[in-house]
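Marked as duplicate of an earlier ticket. Keeping the data here for the record.
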Amino acid sequence: MSRDHVQPAGPPASEGATGAPDDGAGAPYLELLARDAPVEAYEQPVLLARAGGQPADRVAALERAKLLALRVRSELEGRRRREAELSALFETAHDLAGLRDLDAVLQAIVQRARSLLSTDVAYLSLNDPARGDTYMRVTEGSVAARFQQLRLGMGEGLGGLVAQTARPYVTDDYFKDARFQHTRAIDAGVEDEGLIAILGVPLMLGPNVIGVLFAADRRARVFERGQIALLGSFAALAAAAIDTANLLTETRSALAGLERANEIIRDRSAVIERASEVHDRLAELVLRGGGVHDVAAAVSQVIDGTVEFTEAGTAPAGALKASRTEGHAVRHQGDWIAAVAAGGELLGALVLRGHPDLDPVDQRTLERAAMVTSLLLLARRSAAEAEHRVRGELLDDLLDARDRDPRLLRERAARLHADLDATHVVLAARLDGPAADADEEAAARRRLWSAASHLAATRHGLAAVRDGGTVLLLPLAAGDSATELARRTARHLGTAVHQPVTVGASAPVTDLTVHHDTVAGAYAEGRRCLDALRLLGRGGDGAAAEDFGFLGLLLAGDRDVGGFVGRTVGPVVDYDERRGTELLHTLDAYFACGMSPARTKDALHVHVNTVAQRLERVGRLLGEDWQTPARALEIQLALRLHRLATPERH
């Protein structure tokens, strides 16, 4: 109880000069203090005095004695509590001094914090710099699995706010507190645990926050200043424990490094001669322009075993990961695996077959060979990327219709093994399907560009990035069509990037260097076909204007009316020309008469059986679906265009 509540107005007659109650009034309370009675028991002497008709000054003396006794009791409780707190802090510091197991020390800190603050739950989270959030490290009193696995983003939840601001925060009702950001995942975890009041203090290493220590209750509660300070003291000890553990880990790592360095020094004399031989062989091989398989063959001779280069997907995954992590060749059953990596990318592996016993010198030889192999692969990739950029620059010049010397364009193309005088098709390719986020979309576009560049290089074509997708200029082989080329390209690119790719193709184009706008016009046509495919719900497919029937007339850059008529009613026209029949005229009349054979025979002045026979012949020439609404519309349009093109016959 506060001292402000027990200040008497002046010493009564029954007190001495010191203001203390007389011995008779204080005796019951000394007994209560001696046996550490509960607070409720201190009311009993006053109540008994009043019930027994004691004088008023006696009752007043007992009241004053009660207040003094309660003050003494409060002071004693505070001293015991501080003694327990100091003892717990001392024990924790002692544990820290003899640190062996960081998890055990952190668990002890959380347990003692929960006990001293008398909370239902205590827990500790640590920051994850790689992921930019904080995660549960130790819990005590928790019963909900989802709560124990929570991760809090910076600024999310009370803990995220503490981690972000490096200041203690306390709430007596978590779900009603709007000072911090509530998220569905965090609120669900807190609700599972049933927490209401939460106190969080930062774990500091210098100016940096490395985590948060919490104490929480499943009922509304106000945490006092002393309790906040106590939890802060435990947080400081936890931070010191973590720092000590990190220093021990770094020390052990440094010692391990020194041991490895010492081992290398001891073996140095035996390694020099072998290393010189390997160096000379690999240097000669690289200077001669050898490839990765040449490196494997050379190492096979030095080690006296069979060494092969394999792609990352075909090597044993566990051994490959271990080799990449450790930076050394590792044994796998009877083989040795050396990861071929550059930066953070895994390029493949060198595998030494059937050689279970390998001395340290040969092991380092295999590791050096893996390093040389990675350099060769990077050099090859750099050369390929440079070639891809050059191909893209040439195609950009053609697309932008810049006024350039045709001879220079042909020379640039020839250096890339491309022939601009051949027949080509311009293809517009774009990824189909939603991306998870902007980073994933950018990565998918890079994969598409890489796959398109590789396809262009192997097909003696060109590729460039444009309009959020990729454009390709590929030669058209004899007997091939723009449609088939578009479909093959869509399948190839989709397989390469593991995502549907839609491809629109232009009609075949020639004389690319003579007419500067040829490629640009063909690209616009390919884009229109690409957009039409996506509007028609045919994402992931490939097509050219000729695949869209009469819509192709709108999509094609040169409005190939003759080609549309030929594709639609050409078999009927050819049949009439060869046989001298009137199938085309009958077909025209049939549509003019509303597709009624009876009215058609009147218009043609022939028997209805004649009309039926002619229409049956038309069906065999055009296909059984020629009278479906879509086909009938195309056929009628083709008939009208045919009449416009040959008016003298009508």
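See parent ticket for discussion. Confidence is low (pLDDT under 50) at residues 1-20, 552-557.
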